[in-house]
Amino acid sequence: MVTLKDKLALLTPLRRAKIEAEANRLQDDQHQRLKSMAEARGLSLNKLLEQLSAQALTENDIELRYRRLAASGSIKRGLELLDKLDQADQR
Length: 91
Prior knowledge:
Elements: H1 4-10, H2 13-25, H3 28-40, H4 45-72, H5 75-90
């Protein structure tokens, strides 16, 4: 079985240093929990971190877009739209 150490040996020194530095940033408990989560989802830890990062960035982009629209929009129109959404949810 190929170990993490074996995989790291195949990487360029710079890439290896980046991966090791990133791994050291996580607390052991967090690392183990993320590893368990990845295994439960059938993913590598790296792929899980990519997915979680993408999700966090998407959520941040949505929030920023909302804040920009809210800052430039009409309060009255915003409340009208919220009322419209509430009515649609009640159906």
